[in-house]
Amino acid sequence: MNTTIRTTLAATAAAGLSVAGAAAQTAEAIPADQPVRNVVIVHGAFADGSGWRGVYDDLTARGYRVTIVQNPLTTLADDVAAAHRALQRQDGPAILVGHSYGGTVITEAGTGDAVAGLVYVSALAPDVGETTGGQFAEIPAPPEFVIETGPDGFGFVNMEMFKAGFAGDTSDADAAFLRDSQVPINMEIFGAPLTRAAWRTKPSWAVIATQDRAIDPRLLRQTADRMGAPITEIDASHVLFFTHPHEVADVIDAAARSVSETVSQGDAAAMESR
């Protein structure tokens, strides 16, 4: 049975203070000998990696090296290649993090030895032979989430519905910025079948936004259950990494500490067998 943890914004955030700043002051630094010290983050469709600044600041304050992949969103193969490029630059094993469609990318890209574990942040996780779009067959996206496809086949989130469907817990100003800085995605990506499913062999964690209006939380819980991933629920919209960076960073940190224990135990066992 999966463990589900429910978290809410800290009082400082409710008062309008910087969550990332508070996190930097209170987060516990990782041990100097922790084996897994790298984090690679893969954003989803429509919002690029710049929205992860709060998570980046929080994790780097704890001592992690954080790399944020900028997906081209042109084909699944291109996005997987971008993730592999980032992983190849790490100096040790990494936690691979994906948001939304980025979950598809890390599922395909995360099978190698460079990946110690996976964190799915309101993210999809297809199995081998499945597609991103196919995940919505039984539980479709909420009606507030509307994608408009242009004549070139690239999709944007509808301007009028953007805040309601994508960024409901942001300020009007932040929602407007995210809306106006959208990164379109080639809609053909949603029909590309996966050839690998990293969550079948890698330890995985799931963070679910309970007020998500881009992916129904029921689908997110179903996805986490299939992976056997521990669940952390956050009272947030689809852009929970933007509005709740400290809570998201906590899960990534916990994942890295957990897999580090396994790595350390494995190293100890290897030494004893010599």
Notes on the protein architecture:
This protein is of the alpha/beta class. It has a single domain (4-140, 191-269), classed as Alpha/Beta hydrolase fold, catalytic domain (Rossmann fold), CATH 3.40.50.1820. It is 36% helix and 18% strand. The protein is built from 10 helices and 10 strands. The chain has helices spanning 11-14, 19-26, 53-62, 76-88, 102-109, 162-166, 172-180, 217-227, 240-243, 245-272, and strands at residues 4-7, 38-42, 65-69, 94-100, 115-123, 147-149, 154-157, 185-186, 204-209, 231-234. The strands form 2 sheets. A 7-stranded parallel beta sheet has the order 1-10-9-5-4-2-3, sandwiched between helices. A hairpin with a 4-residue loop joins β6 and β7 (154-157). α2 (19-26) packs parallel to α3 (53-62) and α3 (53-62) crosses α10 (245-272). The longest helix is centred in the last third of the chain and has 28 residues, at 245-272. It is globular, with a radius of gyration of 18 Å. Residues 7-25 and 267-274 have low confidence and may be disordered.
Concise account of the structure shown:
With 274 residues, this protein is α/β, with parallel strands linked by helices. The chain has helices spanning 11-14, 19-26, 53-62, 76-88, 102-109, 162-166, 172-180, 217-227, 240-243, 245-272; strands spanning 4-7, 38-42, 65-69, 94-100, 115-123, 147-149, 154-157, 185-186, 204-209, 231-234. Residues 7-25 and 267-274 have low confidence and may be disordered.
